[in-house]
């Protein structure tokens, strides 16, 4: 089965990708029918057609946002007690035809349903990892291996009892970056310093 897009959880202003207890937490979150939405799966990496964004606020667990890529009749649905946000990004794609290669921008939209008070009475442990890399959050430094550079550096463990946070722990993970990465980075810095000296 294709790896699924992870749900997210925010703790102390930092967003973590949820790594374990994924299905159990999804089972407690309101279903599409309960929210009154009809998401459409646009990828095998997100068979539900939605991504849930949780937040720990005042030591309690809330479902803060539900992100949907596409829905039946997009603007028809607004769950009770929610606000709607829309994000449009413009990824670039190569197009090859008789006139050669061109770069095209094709807009992609996401809809966010933001809830002010959707408390989740979850009991159990939520584990997460940070960072979760997203092409839109980092510069396109093509010479780097993003999967290596942005491999998880910290691990999060949150223990809940009926939605109340009762314990938390953050562990630093061993550095996953290879010696080659550090050597390349040092060479890049040296090159930039040398260029500044010769440009002056």
Annotate the secondary structure layout:
Blueprint: E1 8-11, E2 14-18, H1 22-28, H2 32-35, E3 50-57, E4 60-68, E5 82-89, E6 92-97, E7 100-105, E8 108-115, E9 124-130, H3 146-149, E10 154-161, E11 164-172, H4 179-199
Parallel strand pairs: 1-3
Antiparallel strand pairs: 1-2, 2-9, 3-4, 4-8, 5-8, 6-7, 9-10, 10-11
Question: What would you note in describing this structure?
Answer:
- This protein has 200 residues and is of the alpha+beta class.
- It is 18% helix and 39% strand.
- The chain has helices spanning 22-28, 32-35, 146-149, 179-199; strands at residues 8-11, 14-18, 50-57, 60-68, 82-89, 92-97, 100-105, 108-115, 124-130, 154-161, 164-172.
- The protein is flat, with a radius of gyration of 21 Å.
- Residues 196-200 have low confidence and may be disordered.
